[in-house]
Each structure stands twice: as C-alpha cells, then as structure tokens.
Amino acid sequence: MRGDLVRKLLARVLTTGLAVLAFLVVALTGATGWGLALAVAALAATAWERRVRPSADGLAETVLVAAGILVGYARRLDDGFDPALAATALVLLGLVLLVGPLRQAGALEIRAANLPVRTWTPVVAARLGDALLVLLAVVALAAALALPAWTALAAALLVGAGCGAVALDLARRRFRPPAGGGPVGRALRRHQPEFLLHFSAPPGSEYQVTMWLPYLERIGRPFVVVLREPEFLATVAAATSAPVVLCPTLKALDEALVPSLRVAFYVNHGAKNAHVIRFNQLTHVQLHHGDSDKAPSANPVSAIFDKIFVAGQAAIDRYARAGVEIPADKFVVVGRPQVEAIEVRREPVTPPAHPTVLYTPTWTGHHADANYCSLPVAETLIRRLIDRGAAVILRAHPYTDKNPASARQLARLTELLAADRAKTGRPHLFGAAASRALTLTECVNRADALVSDVSGVISDWLYSGKPYAVTDTGADGEHFVERFPLAASGYVLRRDMSNVDDVLTGLLDADPKAAQRWAARTRYLGDFPADGYAEAFLAAARRELEPDWAVPAPRAEV
C-alpha cells in the first residue's frame, strides 16, 4: 500500500509539474521546441497517472498543456492570425471540457461480456480521455514540424466526431430509451438466464466470485453474473463462459434482471446486495465466500436472505452462538464444494524429516474486533520452522497490502524465506509463486501441515485430514477455543509465541489430535461422500430452480 501511495503522489507531482513547466517555457521564453517536448512529457505523465489513479481529474493540467501547445504552434507558424489554428483551439477547448463528463456518463451505462451484443458507447466513452491525450500529442508534433494548421484541425475534428457520436447516443439513451430495452437487455432475454450471481466488493475481491463460477456452471442451467464495479469485468469474464454484465446504476440493474430469472445467489454481505433483494419475485440465496469462526461469518444481515447455504452444522451453530436468530428452515447444509479436489490423508503417516508447512496469515480486517492477523509476531514462527528444516509456503490474504504495517511485515518474512532458500535450497514458496501460480487447493495438497489465523482456510484444510495450528492473536487466552471452536481440533499458538516449540512438536511429530479432526470435519464440512462431494450443493441449487417454482412468501422485516 505504501508503494501504491508513493506511485500516486509521484504521478500527481509529475503531471502537474510538467504541465506548468511546459506552459511557462512556451509562454515566457523563446525555447518553443523545449516547451513542446515538455508538453508531450506532461501528456505521458497524465496517461500514467490515469493508470495509477483511474479517478484522477487532470482538467487543469490538460488545459495548461493544450494552451502551451497552441501558443507554441502559433509561434512556429508565425503567419499572424490563422483561422484553421483558431478553429483547432476552439475544438480542443470543447474536447477538454467535454471528455471528462462524457467519460463519467459512459461509465454509468450497462456493459456486457460473453454476450453476443456490442455496447460501443461506454467502451468508446472510456477511451475518450486517451484519445484526447493522443490528439494533443499529434498537435504538438504538428507544431514542432510547423505543419499547416489544417492538419491539426483535421485530427481535432476526427476526435470531435467521436465525442459527438458518444454524446448523441448517451443523450438518446437518457431521454428516449428504446421501448424494448437496450441491446444488453434484449440479448439477456434471448439468453433466458434462470439465475444470477450478484457481486459487489472492494478491489482485489474477485476471488470471492471466481471460486463459485465452476460450480454454478455445473448446475447446468443458463445464468448471468451481475457485477457492480467495473474493475472486475475483465477478470470475471475470463473465468466463465456465462454472460457477465456490469450494472453500475439501479437503472442498469433493472435492465439486467430479466423476467426469466428465478434465483439470485450472493457470495458476501455487500451493501449493494440490497439493490437486488428488493426484487421479491426472486429467491435470494447467500453462499458466502468461505467458512470460518470469524465474527463476520455470523453476520445478522444473513437474515434478509430466503436461503443460507452453509458448509455444515457448525455454521448454523455459529449464528446461534452469536445470538443471531434465524429460522432453521432458511439453512441448507451443502458442504463446501471448493474442497472436492483436496487430497484426503486418512491414515497416519510417518512425519517427514523435512515437512512442508503452509502458513496463511489473514488480514487485519475492517475493525479491531475482526483483526486476527498474526503477521506482527510471525517472524518467530518462520524462524522456528526454518530451524526444523521445514519448507514454508507463505500465502497471505489478498487484502494484506491494504495495511502498510502488514505489508512491511510480510516483506520481512519473504526476505527470511528467500535468504534461507538461497542458503539451503529448500523449496520455500512466497509472493506470486504461492498466491497466483498455485491455487489454495494446490497449496493444501503440497503441504503436510498448516499454520493459519482464524479464517476460512482452516475449514478448507480440515477436509484433508492433516494437522493444523491456529494462532490466537487476541486477548481471549483460555476462552479462545470457546469463541473459535474449530481451534479445539488444532494446536493453538499463543500470541506471544511462548508455546511455539510445543505446538510445532504436536503439529509435525506427535499429532495427538488426529481423531478430533475427523469429528470436526463432519460438523464443519457435512457428512457427504468424497466421490461426488459437490453434488450436495448442485442438488440444493437445482431444487431452487424446479419447474414448479412459485414466488416466495414475503420476508419478515429485519
């Protein structure tokens, strides 16, 4: 996060500084060539800033650069008043003022992927800012070469025509919407989706939806993924063959929710879920994106859904333990289909001389009471594992970089593992090699034991039958297991790491809790056969889509 902030600040300084410098050099000195070169550099800095800060507003800088280029152009021509150059200036002024609003308006339009429809307006609107920067660079080049002003005017009119087409189409959509809906809505009606997956989350959360896509496809019914934030469109569309629709506004959402839909699935408790829950003709099903003893896993907001698919009885008990009253008939135990590819170790094995240990620290959470992150004390753990000759797979939570301190702590652990790998040749894995090149399932299958914070990783690991340790990062002490029952079948690592050696002995050598793990496995992940484990979820989802479906009874106010 610190590096990201530095990049943003550097981009801002470069953009503003170069724009001001270019204008001053052209306006106050005779170094027109240098001024034009600085203007092009300012345009490059502006383009970079838009990549680093997509919401950046560079209107003032763009005006300065455009003014500087035009002054330099007039000096190079040195022919007095040039009508073509004056017209170019007017067109550029109009473009500079209009491109931002048009881009913002286009961003509010519905967009689609994996659907046979072309939604050119929002795509072109999103590129208008880049087109303006390229146009200004072309005008600067024409000025540097002292080309006739009509060449710059022609280029400006070409970009202006694109802006005009976008503006007209946006106005038509806004003031004279087609009676049969837009092209995306018509295409969805032809597709006839029976259910949707609604997703809204902060950047970096796409794993919440991609983990469910293979199983939604296996239901065997047509469906659509509805996204609310644009940064997820490309990633999610690449992960499925189903239509993916971006609905940034309620109007766009109304167009996407076609009459054939019967069920809406959700993978988190995002605030924008309420935008879909208002459609009472749908059955609303919460899937969650993991199963853990964390406080958010017993969120009272779950009560607004018609059905809550849970991995096992432990999830139902978790709500009751937290005092969240939800009718029993809302819960459906479906297992955790994502674990079906995890290899199960049923029989005790001789502990390997050089075990592989998966360490999965979680993030700090949005609030202090949900901070289960062990990174502040993890260096002791990593050093002890290295001393025991273990190979470590360090797979951090995707949100780790949101906290600068956590990012620094993770970097320190990476340095330790990299140094030991260079010294001993042990196959430690960290960074992209552990979090991107491998899936969580692949990491689990490679490892002999797990050390994890309180998170959904433990529930997934539990399916393997292999030993695990849980870090107690709070002040619960002897009450830790009461708050987090899954820790009872694991080895609890104290926050001060005072028992790290004893825990690692139990984890990697003696393993006296093997029997407890198998009992916990049934409570947390359901009692389903390994062959066809995911069928429990598929069957439950299909039951919600039966032909005799009827509008569900109105939900009680919560």
From TrEMBL:
Domain of life where this protein originates? Bacteria
> Which GO molecular function entries does the Swiss-Prot or TrEMBL record give?
CDP-glycerol glycerophosphotransferase activity
> What are the record's GO terms for cellular component?
membrane
- Pfam families assigned to the protein according to its UniProt record, in alphabetical order: Glyphos_transf
What InterPro entries does this protein map onto?
Glycerophosphate_synth, TagF_C
Identification of the protein by name:
CDP-Glycerol:Poly(Glycerophosphate) glycerophosphotransferase
Q: Decide whether keyword Nucleotidyltransferase is in the record.
A: no
Q: Which UniProt keywords apply?
A: Membrane, Transferase, Transmembrane, Transmembrane helix
Q: Which residues cross the membrane?
A: 20-46, 83-102, 123-143, 149-168
**The organism of origin for this protein:** Micromonospora marina
